[in-house]
Amino acid sequence: MTTGTGTGSGAGTGWGTGPDTDVLVVGGGPVGLAAAIEARLAGLDVVLVEPRPGPVDKACGEGLMPGSVRALDRLGVHPEGHPLLGVRYLDPTRRVTHLFRGTAGRGVRRTALHGALAARAAELGVHRHEARVTDLEQTDGAVTAAGVRARWLLGCDGLHSTVRRLAGLEAPARGPRRYGIRRHFRLAPWADVVEVHWGPRAEAYVTPVGDGLVGVALLGPPRTDFATTLAGFPDLAARLAGAEPDGPVRGAGPLLQRTWARTRGRVRLVGDASGYVDALTGEGMRVGFAQAAAAVATLDDPPERYERAWAASTRDYRYLTSGLVTAATSPARRGIVPLATRAPAVFGAVVERLAR
Ligand SMILES: Cc1cc2nc3c(=O)[nH]c(=O)nc-3n(C[C@H](O)[C@H](O)[C@H](O)COP(=O)(O)OP(=O)(O)OC[C@H]3O[C@@H](n4cnc5c(N)ncnc54)[C@H](O)[C@@H]3O)c2cc1C
Questions:
Q1: What is the pLDDT of residue 1?
Q2: Which residue's CA is the nearest one to ligand 1's atom 5?
Q3: Which pTM value belongs to this model?
Q4: How far apart are CA 67 and CA 72, in angstroms?
Q5: Which residue(s) pair with 90 in the sheet?
């Protein structure tokens, strides 16, 4: 266990009869770290439990939409990356690009994002406890997990959240089972936008993340294999031919995860743990950062306040991304890029709605 310099709680100390800390954050991904920072900025004492020593990597498209960049700025977190000026949809014969109307987004390697968030959390005195939560106990005045008693627990433990299951908040996910896999390639980015290449069964989501580094995330049905699926995008495969891969292929899924509710007693679910639709619109972090802010702001309120704030912060993402996934997994799929090309204003309006 490593500890920061905060106001005197300790993981597992079991001091006296009161809780060890105000807020126990479970999961040190981007949303957990953002929630821990939010809570420290609100003057609360925070313990963060994460089993993996940093910097934590994960399958991700690594596109921080403009709303994510603004949220991180507000937290005092400024990770390095490559500017993202918009979003482009392509198929073999068409392309349509929407440039963000306001500030730019940023392509940022997950390890760089993790490093910047972890440094800020440490600077603010978040206590870190290296452990995996396997059980959870609630009483009227406290919630205990990984040996830490807290007034509140924020479950930020990702797509396959243990906290969600232990709190009885997991709901069956009915819908297409989709998966994501990603790999980096060492070559100079050829565009300052996120490119979404639409193939017959999968999408290739290309994000510039540095001067000489490009991330490629493939989204598709079960058994989407990186090499075989990439070969189905001949233009993209030709660009990447000869470029040295950087690091391993990483995968995640199934992406669709649902919850009955986001609150139970002293537990709040935040980020992917609170439910996830799909990576197709690259919104996970923007939505997760908004939830983190809402969860901390409503801790002392009746739980409905967080439920309402959660619903408001995820509404566009849930409806627009679900609609797009429904189209993408139906015969309408082949009409998506043609439609976006014929109606660029509609395409632009949807991108703006999701990116802000
Ligand atoms: C292929 C793909 C592409 C994507 N592209 C984008 C994109 O371009 N832009 C974007 O904004 N979003 C994107 N997303 C979504 C984004 O990756 C997630 O929304 C984001 O990682 C959510 O962060 P999180 O902190 O909630 O969860 P995670 O990043 O999954 O972090 C969860 C943390 O909890 C820890 N943990 C797990 N179990 C326990 C336990 N029992 N006890 C303690 N700790 C635990 C894990 O070790 C991990 O560190 C993409 C997702 C995928 C799969």
A1: 34
A2: 61
A3: 0.94
A4: 9
A5: 95, 197
